[in-house]
Amino acid sequence: MIERLSIVGVGLIGGSLALAARERGLVGEIVGYGRRRETLELARKRGAIDRIAATLPEAAAGADVVLLAAPVGSCAALARELRPHAPSNALLTDVGSVKAPLVAELEAAWGAGAVVGAHPIAGSEQTTVAAARADLFVGRRCILTPTPRTRPDAVTTVRRLWEGVGALVEEMDAERHDALLARVSHAPHLIAYALVDAVASWTHGAEALARAGSGFADTTRVAGSAPELWRDVLLANAPAVREALREFRQSLAAMEAAIAAGDAAALEVALERARAARGRLGGAS
Amino acid sequence: MIERLSIVGVGLIGGSLALAARERGLVGEIVGYGRRRETLELARKRGAIDRIAATLPEAAAGADVVLLAAPVGSCAALARELRPHAPSNALLTDVGSVKAPLVAELEAAWGAGAVVGAHPIAGSEQTTVAAARADLFVGRRCILTPTPRTRPDAVTTVRRLWEGVGALVEEMDAERHDALLARVSHAPHLIAYALVDAVASWTHGAEALARAGSGFADTTRVAGSAPELWRDVLLANAPAVREALREFRQSLAAMEAAIAAGDAAALEVALERARAARGRLGGAS
After folding, report:
1. What is the pTM of this model?
2. Do A190 and B255 touch (CB under 8 A)?
């Protein structure tokens, strides 16, 4: 049991974790800190947090675990501001979609042993606490990326928290995490944003968007995600994202070549191979 | 009221139209023809069709309207086979996702005045009659692409059929239809197929696919569609699809350039512009 959990950034992920942890009795007190007072009031009203911290030092004070659920690009600065005010043995964890560069920065800011990088693979394009739900993580994967410097008891505490809210926890090297997520999340987000942008920028874009069916809506759903969050993720994981884009362009070019050549057989084989591969998606779809 | 409607290809679209037309009393008799006997038996069992035609001539015989709901690439040959056996004043219509080249072929095969190209923008990656539903077209657009040669009464008959099953019918030039659909449907399908293919082809593809979240599942949902159908659509509309891909690559390259330059402000502006544009999607999402 964690006596006091401080959540910095009470949006969809931070808020859902708070709701779930309270519902399951995994924490004593949950303190929330965030940029917008009205979000924090809503989080308290929804029963996600017990108490609002008015300042970062207040959020850090007496915390056993500090959980950063803020945009990836803000986390290192928050860790530096929080550190002097937190108990010396407090753990720091996060929920960022990029792990290697972020965990390195957090270790530098907080002290290596007590930092546990985490990434729950759950969420939606709705990112506010209004959309938070206690069952968001049930059956979803949560990847922990401890380093050789991480204290084993710190990993155990964070693992128990995520397992406690129903997630399937696995540990993985941070670089491997970033390479995998670049392929199945980061690059696909950029592709979805670019697809909407291309249509909207076209001469008859408005007419086309008005005639889009449910397929286009699904394909581009993640382009409804908060630009502020994805800007940070894409920049932090730039090398792997660009490698994933290179691979994607190669697959697209091969399929387009079959179209250009009018090669029906080659095109059908390529489409069928992709369709079959999609059947191997994780159960979390 | 159509006395006898013959549906050639009783899958999701043909089957749903049949269910809806019967439920709403828009037709006297519905005759179904298809490649697979078991599909036709299921269509009859589900109440979509009254009678199974064992052969194409039998499907054509006595039909007031022949509706082709087969893969785009098969329609012209079917029209040629059906024509000699259909009443001379019978109408021919279709549901293909590509219109200009197909309608030209159908007019050549059937006689121009009695051909009405149609495209109901509805469906899913489920393409069999098992997934057919009478409400599939309610509130969805259906685009008709009459030519200067089409008889006005033929357009009226087909319009009444689609309006009768709840679709929002509009008429449009076939080339314009193909340009719009290349942007919001055909190219996005190819992009989704290519995205899955790129991940599956990557060294750690299986590991990555197993960790894909709901975002990737949505982005690539249409890559679960039947390759046989999309092969035909992509080949039939190749010039517009390739133009749409060119525009997409340009948007993607601009966003990647911002990532490569580490330009957070430019990247956020581009993502936000796309997010905002997505808000202008048709209500049919």
Report:
1. 0.94
2. yes
Residue of B nearest to A200 (CA): B277
Of the partner residues B184, B245, B275, the one whose CB lies closest to the CB of residue A212: B184
Q: Provide the number of CB pairs (under 8 Å) joining chain A to chain B.
A: 317
Q: Pick B282's closest partner by Cβ from A210, A247, A255.
A: A210
Listing DSSP states for A100-166 in one string gives HHHHHHHHHHH-GGGEE-EEE----S--SGGG--TTTTTT-EEEE---TTS-HHHHHHHHHHHHHTT
Task: Tell me the shortest Cα–Cα distance from B148 to chain A, in angstroms.
Answer: 23
- Tell me if A123 and B209 make a contact (CB, 8 A cut-off): no
User: One-letter amino acid identity for A162?
Assistant: W
Which positions in chain B touch A277 (Cβ < 8 Å)? 196-197, 199-200, 205, 209
ipTM of the prediction? 0.94
Residues 154-183 of chain B with CB under 8 A from chain A are 176, 179-181, 183
Closest residue in A to B183 (Cα–Cα): A199
Residue A249: which H helix or E strand, with range?
A: helix A238-260
H-helix or E-strand spanning residue B91: strand B91-94
Q: Nearest 5 degrees, angle CA A278-CA A281-CA A282?
A: 175
Rounded to the nearest 5 percent, the helix, strand and coil shares of chain A are 55, 15, 30
Q: Is B63 within 8 Å of B6 (Cβ atoms)? A: yes
Domain B2-172 grouped into CATH 3.40.50.720: yes
Per-residue confidence in pLDDT tens, chain B, 285 aa? 899 999 999 999 999 999 999 999 999 999 999 999 999 999 999 999 999 999 999 999 999 999 999 999 999 999 999 999 999 999 999 999 999 999 999 999 999 999 999 999 997 777 889 999 999 999 999 999 999 999 999 999 999 999 999 999 999 999 999 999 999 999 999 999 999 999 999 999 999 999 999 999 999 999 999 999 999 999 999 999 999 999 999 999 999 999 999 999 999 999 999 999 998 886 543
Residue A213: DSSP 8-state: -
Domain ranges of chain A: 2-172, 176-278
CA atoms lying within 13 Å on the CB side of residue A47: 9
What is B176-278's CATH number, 1.10.3660.10, 2.60.40.420, 1.20.1250.20, 1.20.120.1200? 1.10.3660.10
Smallest CA-to-CA distance from A95 within A115, A74, A70, A77 is with A70
Cα gap B97→B233, rounded to integer Å: 7
CB A277 within 8 A of CB B227: no
CA distance A121 to B271: 21
How would you list the strands of the sheet with B27-33, edge to edge?
A: B51-52, B27-33, B2-8, B65-68, B91-94, B115-116
Chain A residues close to B194, C-beta within 8 Å: 248, 251-252, 255, 274
Q: Cα–Cα distance between B223 and B217 in angstroms, integer?
A: 10
